[in-house]
Amino acid sequence: MKHNDFLCGVIEGYYGRPWSFNQRKTLFEYCLKFGLNTYVYAPKDDAKHRSRWRDLYSYEESSELSQLIHIAKRYGIKFVYALSPGLDLIYSSDKDLRALKRKLDQGCYFGCEYWAWLFDDIESEMCQQDKDRFVSFAHAQVAVTNEIYDYLNKPNILLFCPTQYCSQMAKPSLERSSYLQTIGNSLHPDIDIFWTGSKVISRRISVSHILSVNTVLQRRVTIWDNLNAKDYDQCRLCLGPFSGRSSNLSSRLSGMLSNPNCEFELNFIPLHTLGQWYQSLRINESQDQIDDDEDSLQITQIYLPNKALDQALIDWLPEFQKVKSAYDCQKIVKIDNSPQAMSPKPTVSSLLIDEDSQDSICESQTSTTSSSKMHIMECDGNGNAGGDLTLDDIRLLVELFYLPYEHGPNTQQMFIDFYWLRFNYSRNEKLNEWHCRASSFHNNAKNVGRLVQRLTTIHNRSLLYDIYNYASDISSTISLYNDHKRSTVFLSGDIEPASIRGGLAGEFLSILPMGDFQPIIKPDVNTSPNQHSEILADKLIGGYLLSSSNNFDLCFSVNNIEDELCAFVLTISESEKYDKIIQATWITQLHQKYPNVDQNFFEVNECHQWIYDRYAVRIQLFIDLTIKAANAYFIGNKLMNMIINNLIKRGFHGCHALLDERYPLLHQFYLRLGFVDVSNIEQNDHIILVGKQF
Fold this sequence. Notes:
Elements lengths: L6 E6 L8 H14 L3 E4 L17 H16 L3 E6 L10 H16 L4 E5 L9 H6 L3 H15 L6 E4 L16 H9 L5 E4 L11 H11 L4 E4 L29 E4 L9 H23 L8 E5 L1 H12 L6 E2 L5 E3 L17 E5 L3 H16 L17 H10 L8 H15 L7 H25 L5 H22 L4 H6 L10 H9 L17 H18 L9 E4 L5 E8 L2 H19 L15 H6 L2 E7 L5 H21 L4 E7 L3 H9 L3 E2 L9 E7 L1
Parallel strand pairs: 1-2, 1-8, 2-3, 3-4, 4-5, 5-6, 6-7, 7-8, 15-16
Antiparallel strand pairs: 9-12, 10-11, 13-14, 14-15, 16-18, 17-18
Helix pairs in contact: 1-2, 5-6, 8-9, 12-13, 13-14, 17-18
């Protein structure tokens, strides 16, 4: 890495229609406003960037790119031009190498100074000509990249995207990948490397993970962040705040670049909150330079996604009333900054706290902010149904299309309510609760419908057309479940196409096995359903049963009157010992027992030391959540009381559980039992940690 600046900004690197010239100009204005400093031009469906990379740009195309580069420079933004030749590049071909240099010469002509070299999403098989010349695929990529780096006179910025760009792709593992080892050893040390985290779309990126990656690649990597990307699912949007990336990452990275939603107008929140995250880094770095006195009070600015979202929503609201045509040409600006329009009052985007209280904030942040966010989003049903959008309206919009691994808290509760209503229908024991939840779901459904009505009245038609199909689709989907008049249609079998979502894709998804079984078995392996169950059982409870730290006198099961198992709980009192010593042995045995299962499926979990100190005991509660809610809660509460009473007698004062985020009902069940979400940025990508003190 030759440059000293931390690169923070946007990579236009998605599949789909590229942004327009005017949209990119607006993006640069956003970057300036939000404090971002980098833009990477890498739209997959610009043919001359990828599929027809040998073709030179026309005069008109060159003029556009040249103008954008000069506008970016004027705003203080680094414009990085990326080329992606890997689909059909012959690495040993002198002709292809000349074509590459000719294309880069054109980029230099229209003012480009910074570059990116992308080999993502391509086949790793070389042609025979390349096999005859290069030892491996990695050696071929390194040879061409190093030559291009020299040809460009060793520019301050050259970013390289490897074909294995996340741990999930590294074969057989991150540490043992010969491809990544070759890249780390042989790529020029001043060339930066893109990395997306443990997965293509990583919920969290931890410091420990990045340290491991940096060790393999022998440099600080730059994150290509797909948290808000949605080109893999045309029914999805990701409007939620930048999250899951610790502020402590900055000293271990060269940069953080967001690859956001394809729809340009819908990236305001992701980029605004990314800017707040970056601003907190810069404030802390400045503070570190000033506070050399060890006895002085250290004040640290902590980035909190929920607080950042509050501020971003306030700033996004006026964008809805900017007068812009459907073709993104802004005509006039009409912003109402009156107190009424900006209500509720702005919330600061971050908190200033001293470092001694950081641990307690890490623990309580999720529970306190979640509870504050779980306010009822009421819209005035009398006089404002077709009126202007409010902050509550756009908060609801963001929560409907939140993040890839989570829904907004209010919409998550709406889904949980419907799930409960579905499985408790026609049961008379809880009739009042059923009607109460049904009324809540009905009101929330009305709010979604009202949101769509109000969206159609906004002046910013460019924003409207980017969001309308998604908002209309979720509104009509929810209305299917909210309209009792349609129930006879479902029961009769005479269903209209609007009642079956997704067309052919929906038909396939309806029969696709989901959950832990679907992604773990390699396609060339014939595995029976019974073996699926055995794999999952070994993963979830095998380590508990094997461990000497397992307290069998604190393990209980519950059977129903038919003697069928409906709940059980396992306990490990020495969870720290299990994680650091026993767990690795067990996972090694699992790799040997199931050689055809993706090794990434059997993950190592390890927590911060303060979690082991505060919540020493690990429990795992399994319960059939399809039984009546009251019975499930009674069983779970009874089991927990028995365990807690015994743990207190043995001198323990806290316990924790590791949950898979893909099962929100189980998460909600633990919260109802008195557990709280515990922030643990080092944990694996899809794990939620909950704790309970007593």
